[in-house]
Fold each of these.
Amino acid sequence: MSEKKVDFDELEKIFDYYHSGYQCAQVLLLYALEAQGIENPDLIRAIGGLNSGISEYRSVCGCLSGGECLLSYFAGKGAEEEEMHAEYKEMAKELYDWFTEFNEDTGGSVICKDLLENDFSQRARVCPILINYTFQKCLEILEKRGLI
């Protein structure tokens, strides 16, 4: 993963969540819910299926899938009378494209095991920083469209 500047106040909060047993996808949604003063354990529990590359299979990174869920939380269809935001698909593509570019030093992979270079002991070093940058990118995408 490329070395980039990190906001340490935010990173400390991510580490707190992470060390409390939450993982990538869950932390992204916890962060968003907390900012709104909302607790939703059912949502956080459900999102847990995306952690560690989809339930420990080391497939699609939980940061990317959790980030896509975060975008959908604000822009997706959630009730029969609602409509998906007109730009949702572009938002999802923007996050995906950014994620692959951000991880260019691992070949632009979106796969958990590739991002950890098949060394899962690196999770505590890699994941919190990737969570931070993914969250910031999601905020940027949502702010650009006036959704937050």
Amino acid sequence: MRSRLLGGLAAIGLLLAPAAGGGTAAAKKGFGLSSIKGSYAGIFSGKTSSGLELLGTGVFISDGEGGLTGHETFTVDATVCDATIKGTYTVNPDGTGADSIDFTTTTPGCTSGSYTQSLAVGGSGELVLLSNTNGDRINEEWHLQK
């Protein structure tokens, strides 16, 4: 199900990005794979391309070398789904990047799948993510766990 849940927000984020900072400030340099390392608590919400509501939380563990694992629980309309995740990520020197995640669920009524997201690394251990998959409109935040 989530594979159909994740698209369109990347386009919205690209449209809003220039307005957010006026487009004149230079991006901080020096980010890399190790900029995303550790255990993150995440929250996400939005709508699928077919109009279904999606809400969820998860724990996402990054190895600092481009690998992700974790666990997420999400609700699609009235169905609660439990999934494990495994994936990869990239980080550019300016702190932008992307991830690609496969999720597996054995919850009845839920479907395993995959999704991709654009991401940006924040300065205090947070990530903001926007979906890039199948026209869904899902936004997500990850906060570094202490």
Amino acid sequence: MANIDNTRSQMRKGMLEYCILLLLRHSPLYANDIIVRLKQAEMIVVEGTLYPLLNRLKKDGWLRYEWQESTQGPPRKYYALTPEGEEALRQLDCSWNELATTVSILQQHYPAVLPPAGDMPASGNNPE
């Protein structure tokens, strides 16, 4: 089961960057708002994961930020897409659509229930 947990974790990490760009597509957001919206979408992210990623995306030129006054404390850093970030998001949209299509095809063409492990052909004996 540990292998499944690792695979799930890697899948989520791979999607996190794309999900952040999707959230910023329409308007700038404060980091805490990003965390809340990701949680609403059932992707749990902690600040220790988010901030380094936001900094890397800024360094890569995909994000910019500006400080805005807050009614509830100190000024807040709001993140927004740059033109390069918008282009990256367009490319990631295409990649996501290709991946989703591939997974959908595989789900439709192969049975949802796998045969018992003993009934599986040995590695290298695939009849295809």
